[in-house]
Amino acid sequence: MKEKKKKERKNTLPILCMVGPTSLWLLFFLLIPLIYVVVISFMTKGAYGGVVFKFSIDSYKRIFDPLYLTVMWKSIVMAFETSVICLIISYPFAYMLCKVPAKVRGILTLLIMLPFWVNGLIRLNGWSNILRDSGFINTLLMKIGIIDQPIQMMYSEGAVLFGMVYTFFPFMVLPLQSSISKLDQSLIEASYDLGARKVKTFVRVILPMTLPGIFAGTIQVFIPSLGAFFISDVMGGGSAAYLGNLIQNQFLVARNWPLGAAFSVLLIIFTLVVLKAYSKVGDLDDLA
Amino acid sequence: MEDRKAIVQLKNITKSFGDNQVLKPISLDIYEGEFLTLLGSSGCGKTTTLRIIAGFETPTEGSVYIEDKDVTDMAPYNRDVNTVFQSYALFPHMTVFDNIAFGLVEKKMNKKEIRSKVMEMLELVQLHGFEKRKPSQMSGGQKQRVAIARALVNSPKVLLLDEPLGALDLKLRKQMQVELKRLQKKLGITFVYVTHDQEEALTMSDRIAVMHQGHFEQIGTAKEIYEKPQTKFVAGFIGESNLFEANVDIISGNELELMMENGRVKAKGEGFVKEEIVYISVRPENTHLSDKDVDGFTLKGIVKDQIYVGSVLKTIVELPNGKEVKVNNHPDAYVYPVGAAVTVYWDPDKAVVIHTKEDKMYDAIEDAVLK
User: Fold this and answer.
1) CA count, 13 A, side-chain hemisphere, B160
2) Is there a contact between A284 and B83 if contact means CB atoms under 8 Å apart?
3) Which domain holds residue A231?
4) CB–CB of B102 and A186 under 8 A?
5) Rounded Cα distance, B210 and B208, in Å
6) Phi, psi (5° rounding) for residue B277?
7) Looking at the predicted structure, is the pLDDT value of residue A187 above 80?
8) What pLDDT score does B22 carry?
9) Is CATH 3.40.50.300 correct for B6-232?
10) How do the domains of chain B map onto residue ranges?
């Protein structure tokens, strides 16, 4: 007994060395700022911006303004659409990634990761150059003579959706691929053997077996697209208002920090709820 | 046997993966209601053969017939055969009930009928009451039973089993061997069973097809395979055997007198010619020792070792050229002590004489392939 205790104490220092730096990092750069945001959300807005440290729940009352509720609903719908489209595009791609030879898989994975080496804002501005009225596509089509009026592609909900899908697509592919690659080939053979054709095998075996990847991918796309603001800024133009923009505006333009903080808290709570739901549904331990 | 109906026919099947030819042209008729075992060591092509029957692999050449219908290019889901996989391949996201019902659901059977069939099957494999469990909550032996039930519930024309007992411990394996044989007899379904375990093959099979390097060495009943091996490989692979190389010296009718490096022996066989080099295979239990002269046998050696292994007492005799001969006796029998000079002999009826020609040919092919 005593021996064991001694041994445990001996382990304390190495453990502290390993966990310590990360814990300090999380404490100073995550937990304290987070608490600060929560605290600010319960304060009063200063007359010329800034925060007056006087308790108030005004910000939370204002959240439920129908105008803001519409924005939030729009954001959720947009995030949902992004997730669904990403899933539909990614699944066949991820499936193919698992089937091709390792060398090809390496190259394709690199191609997915490559855009990350360039800042997202710059990549989106690139797209804006391609899609806008005087952009590459419209110029080309008009030169050829297929159209004589530029097609309005930018600054619409569709453009925002496109930007979202483009930006978050890799977050869907990677968990899906990891899930599909774990799929035991003999299960597919067993399904064929028992008379299930390809589509039936997909629905009855492959899809349920890769649900963990589908959940993980959806979460990884849904959550960041809910809070993203620069995509809607660039692709949707100044008029597009989503939850991310709302928060950004309250902090930088309207200078209503408490309200911005309250929206942030709401976003965080919503994220936690989604994550909790995921861990309930997504934790299909039988599939592990 | 000849007038029985062939349910599966393999006709001149070959299979290559890239440059690697796994199956040389093989042909095999599998009869209705029989328990046929494909026996061989790993890499001999037995699993590939099974997968070709199941439809998971397409033969490079040749054709597969099931009930006289060419199914060579038919997808596995259209074939009336079911497989028990080596790794069980149970669906982990489904309960035992849903696993077994999988094939019946595909057949669009109504729920009530499915339920009664699944329950009947669970009873048959002695897993009554396990229907709500997930595969992860079951032991290896239980999973194996579910896998068998899942295949059998579809009443396949042929059940294919790919080393189904490989992962079980010895005791459970023996028990399952008996159970599988019992099931097969009861249901009358044709079983094609793949194993590398010769004892398993001898215990369960009506016929055994011994495979080696992509071809059949011998196809026959357990008794034929054991008592009359037709090739050196079969003699060495199935059970223990004393194998000698000899030269046919005198032929009178079916009686042969042969010359070996260390002496003369007798055996019986037909179709041999004088001066032909042959193999002689004699089982240790049919090999005897004597300190007196034996008519026709001048094979002399020294007793080197006595090994007691429970049911038998093994005597090892060393011949002058260093070759060892194994002799099995009943533990209570009189045996010659270590160091005794003895003559090795056998009942000529119990010695199997094998042509070397074919083996030499296969060896040559093998060498060519390896080079």
Assistant:
1) 26
2) no
3) 61-287
4) no
5) 6
6) -85, 125
7) yes
8) 92
9) yes
10) 6-232, 240-370
> Does the CB of A283 have a partner CB in chain B at under 8 Å?
no
Beta bridge partners of B353: B280
Supply the pLDDT for residue A202. 95
Spell out which residues of chain A touch residue B107, defining contact as CB-CB under 8 Å.
195
Nearest CA in chain A to B147: A190
Q: CA A155 → CA A2, A9, A131, A160, distances in Å?
A: 70, 61, 10, 7
- A-B Cβ pairs (cutoff 8 Å, strict): 66
CATH for the B240-370 domain, from 3.40.50.1000, 3.40.50.720, 2.40.50.140, 3.40.1160.10: 2.40.50.140
Structure tokens at B141: 């032996």
Q: What is the ipTM of this complex?
A: 0.83
- Give the tens place of pLDDT for each residue, B1-26: 456 889 999 999 999 998 899 999 99
Provide the whole-model pTM: 0.81
- The answer for residues whose C-beta is within 8 angstroms of residue A145's C-beta and 6 or more apart is none
| CB within 8 Å of A154: residues ≥ 6 apart | A128, A131, A132, A133, A135, A235, A237
Nearest CA of chain B to the CA of A79: how many Å?
29
- Of the pLDDT bands very low, low, confident and very high (cuts 50, 70, 90), residue A205 is very high
| Residue from A243, A235, A214, A256 nearest A162 by CA | A235
More confident residue, A287 or A261: A261
Gap from A125 CA to chain B (nearest CA, Å)? 45
Which two structure tokens, joined as six digits, stand for B140? 């290896």
Instruction: Specify which of A46-60, B3-17, B50-64, B293-307 reaches the highest per-range mean pLDDT.
Output: B50-64
pLDDT above 70 as % of chain A: 93
pLDDT band at B359; cut points 50, 70, 90? low
Q: What 3-state class would DSSP assign to B78? A: helix
Q: Name the minimum distance, in Å, from the CA of B178 to any CA of chain A.
A: 25
Gyration radius from chain A CA atoms:
24
Question: Which B residues, 65 through 84, put their C-beta within 8 Å of a C-beta on chain A?
Answer: 75-77, 81-83
pLDDT tens digits for range B171-227: 889 999 999 999 999 999 999 999 999 989 999 999 999 999 999 999 999 999 998
- Taking an 8 Å cut-off on Cβ atoms, the answer to whether B77 and A208 are in contact is no
What is the four-CA torsion angle of A118, A123, A124, A130, rounded to 10 degrees?
Answer: 180
Q: Is B56 on the interface with A (CB under 8 A)?
A: yes
Closest partner residue to A286 (CB to CB) among B55, B81, B136 is: B136
